Amino acid sequence: MSAARRLSPPRPVRVEKGPEGAPETVSGEAVEAVLEDWVVEDRWWTGRPLRRRYFEVLLADGRDAVVFIDLTSGCWFAQRSA
Amino acid sequence: MVVCSLVPRFQLLAALGERRALLSEPSALAPEPGRGQFLGEVSAAAEAFGVTPGMRVGEALSRCPALRLVAPDPQGAREQWSAALDALEGIGAEVESDLPGTVFFAASGLTGIHGGNLDGVLRAAGAAVPRARLGAAPSRFASYAAALHARPRRRADQRIVGVEAAAGFLGPLPVGLLRSRPELAWLPDMLERLGIRTLAALAALPAARVAERFGHPGLLAHELARGGDTPLDPRRPQEPVIERLALPDAASGPQLERALELLVGRVLARPERRGRTVRALGLSARFVAGGTWRERATLRQASADAGRIRLVLAPRLAALPAPAELLGLEVEAFGPPAHDQGKLLEDRHAGRRARLAEAVSQACQVAGPGAAMRVLDVDPGSRVPERRSVLAPYEAER
User: Fold this and answer.
1) Which residue in A5, A13, A79 is closest to B385 by CB distance?
2) Could you tell me what percent of chain B has a pLDDT over 70?
3) Which of B46, B199, B257, B291 is the most exposed, having the fewest neighbouring CB atoms within 10 Å of its CB?
4) How many domains are there within chain A?
């Protein structure tokens, strides 16, 4: 296998979302506030487009986290340095 | 399409040599001298008694008192498998093989030189590695499963799974097949406890749920069950430099050291070395009573100095567990050229850089190319965070 690897790869995470689609819990921790949300669409011209909706959230324990939902597969991921 | 060529129980077969008939009886590879008391590969007849690879010898003998323990032959297995890989490379295949007995290669690019179709490639692969089971499928994992299901001792010892048929072929197979990937060896037990027994059941689960429960390994298993896989990573063809010396009866102590001195001299005199230093060596022996032994030695500093190499290898001769009749020495990795050119003007930092480069080189030799990494900015402005930087192997400036 190649020795080079990406930094900050997405990590699968358990998220419960609310009716608006925004996260309500992340890994069992309640979300206090959604600080920001944005959409990234890329490679739409290829057979494997990238469509993500990012949320920067403040958790009940005071941590700041960035999670996104892959709009193609519906999987949730956490990601650092987003 | 990916082709898998599979020789089940290859290490046991290599150790049995001419005594292949023992394969139909309960037999197993004995533990290597000086290692833990665990069995290696076992015959099908032994499996019928509940004996499995990795089982303690005592437990195996209590389950099957008639079990025949076969002295392992790691050097023989390595040589035979290396010859098999060379033969496959001889038909043009770029081979990937992590374990003796299992090899993968991509068929695309080979069809043109083997009759224009996949059958021609499989025929050539079958001729290169006799007795192998062949499987062809769109992915590495599916081709392994196909090779496992190829019927042995049939004329067409092969199974081809088409692109559309891959998911359907894998579906009814048990999740235990995921154990063929070392990074997923722990997963099948857990899946079975959850009632997920077939790859179809795993593939039917939503990827998000699998990812939540099992993380990245779960996603990989899900991808494999759906007929996908990671790309092949073929080996770089090797340049074997090996010297062997037959020993007089019961050679020991000073005689062995003298033999080692001769071997080191011969290896350093080989033209393939082309003035390079030696970084890692494999010292092997064949015992008078049968079986072989092999030890790897990595030099702290790459060297072409015979005295220094002898100094590293001589203590390992003391670890020989039985009298040897043949001693072998193989170069496993070369270092930089042996001649260092001095500079006209002294660079104050050159010494430090050289020491750092040497330390990185040693660490990588022992722990692999991932032991020292550096962050490289690839696309710092990308909106996709994982595309901004990569961790790449650290190559020190000398």
Assistant:
1) A79
2) 93
3) B257
4) 1
